[in-house]
Design brief:
Shape of chain B: globular
Helix content of chain B: 25-40%
Radius of gyration of chain A: 27 Å
Distance between the termini of chain A: 55 Å
Strand order of the largest sheet of chain B: 4-5-10-6-7
Oligomer: heterotrimer
Helix content of chain A: 25-40%
Structural class of chain A: alpha+beta
Number of strands of chain A: 31
Radius of gyration of chain B: 19 Å
Number of helices of chain A: 19
Number of helices of chain B: 11
Strand order of the largest sheet of chain A: 3-5-1-13-10-11-12-22
Largest sheet of chain A: 8 strands, mixed
Chains: A alpha+beta (759), B alpha+beta (289), C alpha+beta (166)
Order of helices and strands of chain B: EHEHEEEHHHHHHEEEEEEEEHHH
Largest sheet of chain B: 5 strands, antiparallel
Strand content of chain A: 25-35%
Structural class of chain B: alpha+beta
Number of strands of chain B: 13
Chain lengths: 759, 289, 166
């Protein structure tokens, strides 16, 4: 059942240009701050000379780490301003505060910093060598985890074939259209900071630490957010802290907005991964063992590398039923921009590897890739690669939908026949399957919580209090829908309070696809509390058990009797008349996961999202150009609150992955990023996108609100492997390192011609 | 951030006088699509800039007209004007095609043909077709106007031979016979907002015996300054085209690239790519499979 | 540097502003005229978030000098809705088709689409894709934006005529 509850809560403001993003705010006497950046990837700061910049007309102050009243950062986390050692090129070492943007950036050039350059380590493999230059005193190992089940050695013995493959993914930038920004306004109580972030409470904590204030002395307000995809977590806290620091020290409001270049130079990136696999398969096509070694580049600071590593460890064996799995993941510190979660928290990297891997095995053994995956994928109550019993598994349903919509077998044959006719442009078809753990699960610190409050007024209006950031995914609308469905009230009654840490409770970050599952459940629980209060009175009036009441259409009905009902508003009035409040509070906790961290075994996530994809591509054999023509994306969302919005999420996730597959690549040799704006860091345009067919499957889970599953991140996981598999189908060349750029394609096409002796 | 004064001359003549007066401290702006980016990036080229001379409003330089055997295009014609021009669509569709691949709709609305030429980027899209057409440019300076071949004004990548007080006011070329076939092909990293990784404009005329009587091959992105490749044209001129000859012509283009620019790390990609692109453009123009 | 006085029509109203010679149209709209609906995403004409309409054509306001706008007619997102707040047909269709998520690129897309439909109200889907190809969106994957413009085109002529009559 697909319900459409109408438009998203923020849509009118956004479509009319009235939505206020951080850069749209201004305050009287506002100053502007700019960051002074280090031009070396690894260097010790010897001295910082401020005088010349301070004397520049219009400059109010030059700030360095020495001026920070609190701490520049927690251990191994990125500092607000670098106190001693710069660990990647472009890090901030000072701030210049001035009466205009232009003056601040002009004066920033006058801050003279003397550095002692240190050797830089710019790949994870180099960083992990014994004699590598140390980025931290205790070395370059960021983390190491192991996981699995069974015994792979025995599994390999049972196999008829052994495959060994290696895959590499690149450094990708989130590039939300709005760059990082912050405005800080000093107040008598402390400071108010406006910034786009996916986690207001965490940003507030970072700012409080920087300033040495209690958390509630920092009022953090989130204006409209122009996209995040994981970018506006640490980076938002960082910019918020810089602006707050400047505001506190000058006593004036301060605005900071990154240019696109600054955003790409200093902002977090998706972890580049090297994924090595050894797989045992029987003649019949049954996978008996999989051994996985993952190496990731964490960049210069910790950020959320631990949970990313854990997730990749858990998901690297793919959505497959394999008796023996052994995985290792090692993340290294390097002198690159720090890595952090980007739409998928590590999933896109290992999904690319595992989905191309199984395609390769199928093709080499003579199986149809889709059939091969169908044979091996997880079914209800199967055991995952880390020993979890999998329930509410809808892989079969997703695969069937993709197979049906693409007419897989016939279409594959048709294309093959077309290809035999020759020509310089050839078509191919590719498939990918997906499973993905929801919320933080075992990858977090074991506990994942959210609080949501509902303020119910005398007139029955409901205000949602929650710190949830709507980074664009429609999370606020999701909450409205949950409350409407729970209470059976009209949409018009519900409004979303501004995200302001002084008033709204902590709902946790909009990340890890936890919004619907964790925050949605907190909203549901808050609505349940309101419902409980209404029901208590309604049951009295109607003379039925309160558990049996039906909430719909602004009425509360006796079960099975359409004419016996009371009115929602009357019940609200009655609650107030009795001197009570109808307001409600919801607190949701994901806990009790039996996860053995030391051995990487057990219940990794409370629930999973599933999906499948089929794509058709066309490859120009003479120029290496790849065109993605069609894309079928099937996602099980458990319960669609608004189908149009769901489809929008899917299309958007696919577009990011098209970019990852074909051209997105932060060009950062030796730690220096060359492509720092949209003219060289290329993301897909309208003409690069395939004709989309997004299919919504609704197999409810026991855990999500109304059975809903999260969707944001799973959508960005299938396109890269599906496209790479389709390129193989078209050309017989196998891209194992992303992206499939023009140059890579030409090289591979040439290699394959040399190999086959054809010209 | 560069600081400069804004000057708004009332005529081309006045603009030239301002250029003569301020020398390399002044820079002409028309559409702004190149200059505004270079100024924002604080390109060393404009480190001396003190004046920006805006000629964008000089309507007398915005026209596309037939003049006997010639077609004349005012330098302030935007790429969009060129794409939409019935005259150009009729006589030189490959020039329209090339102009339609510049940047984005917004950039095509702002950017001018005079600016594209003056910027002298080796990756320009509209320039190769104009080179294939043996186009000429009218250049106006304080001492009057001169007409020279388009090819001759390119000194190097991003450098022209224009004197300090000169402005390009018009580009013109002789109409090709109506039976001429022209093709422009571009290879970019994505399908819009893409700077050419490689492009090529070709025009061919085939006589009634099926013999190639005129041929121009003008590749982009592979030379420091744009040029026709006569050694490649020679392969086909006076011949009945065959697949083999087309491939041979493509190879001559890549040979010429290596002759002129040497072997570079990018050659491994560029060599086969420009060969394929040239061969493909010729095969489309000559309708040879 | 000498400041420049510029007279232009913005969203139907004559305005006169004094600008720095190196000020961009984008800065003037946002800072002087407080029309902050027009956004900056790259500053180099590659993302289209700053798209406005000048004399009927979609342009990147980050690449135009404000000083060069003398006598020009400029339309921004703020000028689209009617006097009583009723949405422009493109805005309605964007809403109906869920064609926006974070919304940051949205004003630019709407302005590109408006300039396009003003000149061509019977477009093909491919023409629409090209018309918005100078605008980057990281959220939607473009499909629903194309749907919205396609749908708006169906009623655009009638809509336009009615609006002009009003």
């Amino acid at each position: 059942m697909v319900k459409k509850h109408g438009r998203r809560v923020d849509v009118l403001a956004k479509i009319t240009g009235k939505a206020q993003y951080t850069n749209d705010l201004s305050f009287p006497h506002m100053l502007y701050a700019t960051t002074v950046r280090c031009p070396h990837p690894h260097a010790k700061i010897i001295s910082i000379e401020r005088e010349q910049a301070e004397q520049y007309p219009g400059v109010v102050m030059v700030i360095t780490a020495d001026n920070i009243p609190g701490i520049p950062s927690q251990y191994k986390q990125k500092p607000i301003l670098v106190p001693e050692v710069v660990r990647y090129e472009g890090e901030g070492v000072a701030l210049v505060v001035a009466n205009s943007k232009v003056v601040a950036s002009e004066a920033a050039k006058l801050v003279k910093v003397i550095y002692e350059e240190l050797p830089a380590v710019t790949s994870s493999e180099a960083a992990l060598k014994q004699d590598a230059q140390k980025i931290y005193d205790d070395g370059n190992l960021l983390c190491k985890y192991k996981g699995g089940k069974g015994n792979v050695e025995e599994g390999f013995l049972m196999a008829d074939y052994i495959f060994e493959k290696e895959y590499r993914t690149q450094r990708v930038d989130h590039t939300p259209l709005e760059t990082e920004a912050a405005v800080a306004v000093p107040t008598t109580e402390g400071i108010t900071v406006y910034a786009p972030t996916n986690d207001a409470y965490k940003a507030r904590l970072l700012i409080a630490e920087t300033l040495g204030l209690r958390e509630n002395q920092v009022r953090f307000i989130t204006p409209a957010i122009g996209g995040s995809f994981g970018a506006k977590n640490y980076d938002a806290g960082l910019l918020g802290s810089r602006a707050a620091l400047a505001a506190v020290l000058t006593g004036k409001p301060v605005k900071m907005v990154f240019t696109r270049e600054e955003s790409i130079i200093e902002g977090t990136k998706r972890h580049p991964y090297i994924c090595k696999y050894k797989v045992g398969v029987t003649k019949a096509g049954r996978i008996t063992a999989m051994e996985i070694d993952l190496i990731g580049d964490g960049g210069a600071y910790l950020s959320k590398s631990h949970p990313v590593a854990t997730r990749t460890l858990i998901e690297a064996s793919g959505p497959y039923n394999i008796d023996n799995v052994k995985s290792n993941v090692t993340l290294a510190f390097t002198n690159n921009t720090y890595s952090d979660a980007m739409r998928g928290f590590g999933s896109p990297q290992v999904d690319f590897a595992s989905e191309v891997l199984l395609d390769e095995i199928a093709c080499e053994m003579g199986f149809d890739p889709l059939e091969f995956k169908k044979m091996n994928h997880l079914k209800e109550n199967d055991i995952s690669g880390v020993g979890q019993v999998m329930t509410d598994v809808s892989l079969g349903k997703c695969l069937d939908e993709a197979q049906k919509a693409s007419n897989w077998k016939e279409r594959k044959e048709e294309i093959a026949i077309e290809r035999k006719k020759g020509g310089s442009k050839v078509k191919g078809i590719g498939f990918a399957l997906l499973h993905r753990g929801e919320a933080f699960g075992a990858a977090g610190q074991g506990i994942d919580t959210a609080e949501v409050q509902l303020l119910v007024n005398n007139d029955g209006g409901i205000t949602i209090l929650s710190s949830m950031a709507d980074v664009g995914m429609g999370g606020h609308t999701m909450m409205v829908n949950v409350i409407m469905e729970t209470l059976g009230v009209k949409r018009e009654r519900i409004v979303m309070a501004p995200v302001d840490t002084q008033y709204v409770p902590n709902s946790g970050p909009s990340s890890a696809t936890r919004g619907t599952m964790v925050i949605g459940n907190a909203a549901r629980l808050a609505a349940e509390e309101v419902k409980e209060k209404l029901a208590a009175i309604a049951a009295d009036v109607l003379g039925v058990l309160k558990e049996e009441l039906i909430f719909n259409n602004e009425q509360i009905y006796s079960p099975g009797k359409a004419d016996e009902h009371v009115n929602y508003q009357d019940m609200i009035n009655e609650i107030f008349a009795r001197g009570q409040t109808p307001s409600g509070r919801g607190w949701y906790t994901v806990s009790g996961l039996a996860w053995d961290r030391a051995n990487g075994f057990g219940e990794a996530y409370l629930s999973y999202a599933y999906g499948a994809a089929v794509t058709e591509v066309e490859v120009d054999l003479e120029t290496g150009q790849v065109s993605v023509d069609k894309f079928i994306a099937v996602h099980d969302v458990g319960h669609a609150f608004d189908k149009n919005e769901v489809i929008g999420q899917i299309n958007g996730g696919v577009s990011m992955a098209v970019g990852m597959a074909l051209f997105e690549d932060v060009d950062s040799k030796k730690g220096h990023i060359k492509n720092t704006n949209f003219d060289k860091y290329l993301i897909p345009t309208s003409l690069d996108m395939p004709e989309m067919n997004s299919i919504v499957v609704e197999v409810p889970t026991k855990t999500g609100p109304f059975g809903a599953r999260g969707l944001g991140e799973p959508t960005a996981c299938t396109a890269a492997p599906a496209i790479i598999n389709a390129i193989y189908d078209a050309t017989g060349i196998r891209i194992r390192e992303l992206p499939a750029s023009l140059e890579t394609m030409m090289q591979e096409l040439k290699n394959s011609r040399n190999k086959t002796g054809l010209n | 951030m560069f600081k400069y004064d804004y000057l708004r001359p009332a005529s081309v003549k006045e603009a030239c006088e301002l250029l003569a007066l301020h020398g390399d401290r002044a820079k002409i702006i028309a559409g702004g699509t190149d200059l505004m980016v270079q100024i924002r990036d604080e390109d060393k080229k404009w480190a001396n800039i003190e004046y920006v001379i805006d000629i964008g409003h000089l309507k007398e330089m915005k026209y596309i007209k037939e003049d006997g055997d010639s077609i004349c295009i005012g330098a302030l014609s935007s790429h969009t004007d060129i794409v939409k021009s019935g005259i150009l669509q009729k006589y030189v569709p490959f020039f329209c095609e090339a102009s339609s691949t510049v940047g984005s709709p917004q950039i095509r609305n702002m950017g001018t043909i005079g600016g594209s030429i003056g910027n002298a980027s080796p990756a320009s899209d509209p320039v190769p077709p104009l080179i294939a057409l043996d186009a000429e440019v009218k250049i106006v300076g304080t001492s009057g106007e001169r007409i020279v071949s388009l090819k001759s004004i390119f000194a190097n990548s991003y450098k022209t031979t224009l004197k300090v007080d000169e402005i390009i006011t018009e580009v013109s070329f002789t109409k090709m016979p109506t039976e001429a076939k022209s093709v422009f092909l571009k290879l970019g990293r994505r399908k819009a907002l893409a700077i050419s990784r490689m492009n090529v404009g070709v025009i061919v005329v085939v006589d009634s015996d099926g013999v190639v009587s005129d041929i121009r091959i003008a590749p982009g992105c592979i030379f420091a300054t744009p040029d026709r490749v006569s050694v490649a044209e020679d392969v086909l001129i006076g011949k009945v085209p065959t697949r083999e000859l087309l491939v041979e012509a493509g190879k001559k283009v890549s040979d010429e690239m290596i002759n002129r620019t040497g072997i570079r790390p990018s050659t491994e990609f560029k060599k086969p790519a420009i060969e394929s692109l040239t061969t493909r453009a010729l095969s489309q123009a000559l309708e040879v499979e | 540097m000498n400041k420049i006085n510029v007279n232009m029509i913005v969203n139907g109203e004559a305005v006169s502003v004094t600008v720095e010679p190196n000020a961009r149209l984008l800065d003037t709209l946002r800072d002087n005229l407080e029309l902050t609906g027009t956004k900056e995403g790259c500053g180099v004409g590659e993302c289209g978030a700053c798209t406005v309409i000048v004399n009927g054509e979609a342009v990147n306001s980050c690449m135009l000098l404000a000083a060069s706008m003398e006598g020009k007619v400029i339309e921004t997102i703020e000028g689209l809705a009617g006097e009583n707040g009723e949405l422009h047909i493109l805005q309605e269709k964007f809403v109906e088709h869920s064609a926006l998520q974070c919304g940051f690129c949205t004003p630019g897309f709407v302005m590109s689409s408006k300039a396009f439909l003003d000149a061509n109200d019977n477009p093909t889907r491919e023409e629409i894709k090209t018309a918005i190809s100078g605008n980057l969106c990281r959220c939607t994957g473009y499909s629903q934006i194309i749907d919205a413009v396609e749908d708006a085109a169906k009623d655009y002529y009638v809509y336009d005529v009615c609006r002009i009559k009003k």
